[in-house]
Amino acid sequence: MLVKEVMLPFGKFPVIGRTVILKEALEEMNKHSLGIVCVVDEEQTLLGIFTDGDIRRQLLSIQKPFSAFFIDDALDHSTKTPLTAQISDKVHDVIKTMGERKIWDLPVLNESRKLVGLLHLHPVVEALFNEKL
Questions:
Q1: What is the spatial distance between Cα 70 and Cα 66, in angstroms, rounded to a whole number?
Q2: Owning domain of residue 83
């Protein structure tokens, strides 16, 4: 089974532009009920990701008023070199890496390194379970 067969397509996961403020990024994450948002440029090149864990770490390390934190650009606080998957990767290999790194979500890139999807653990487990039946 390949990543492209089980990834979430655009519209099914949070994606924001580079100048979106953190508050809007959180609203997008909440809308999709996922703990990640992908930050892209105009050509859908992945610039970074921002996760629930990033929020926690930033709140603990940044010494400024809570309200000021939420008007920053999300990209300022994002992971700019995230682990990613390719559409042609084997799901088994990617899941192994996700388990080792203890992560639930991976941005999926095409051959041109453009964001095309998100590999979320729940749909993968469901697909693997259904494949075994």
A1: 7
A2: 3-132
Quick: pLDDT tens for 38-72. Answer: 999 999 999 999 998 888 887 778 777 777 777 77
Instruction: State the Cα–Cα distance between residues 89 and 51, nearest whole angstrom.
Output: 23
Tokens found for residue 86: 């390719």
State the DSSP code for 36. E
Per-residue three-class SS string for 67-116 = HHHCCCEHHHHCECCCCCEECCCEHHHHHHHHHHHCCCEEEEECCCCEEE
Task: Identify the bridge partners of residue 90 per DSSP, sorted by sequence position.
Answer: 2
Q: Is residue 51 within a helix (H) or strand (E), and if so which, with residue range?
A: strand 46-51
Cα three-residue angle 59-62-65, rounded to 5 degrees = 80
pTM for this one?
A: 0.89
- Lookup: tokens for 96: 């192994």
Report pLDDT for 56.
81
Quote the DSSP letter at residue 10.
Answer: T
CA distance 93 to 42: 30
Distance between CA 27 and CA 130 in Å, rounded? 32
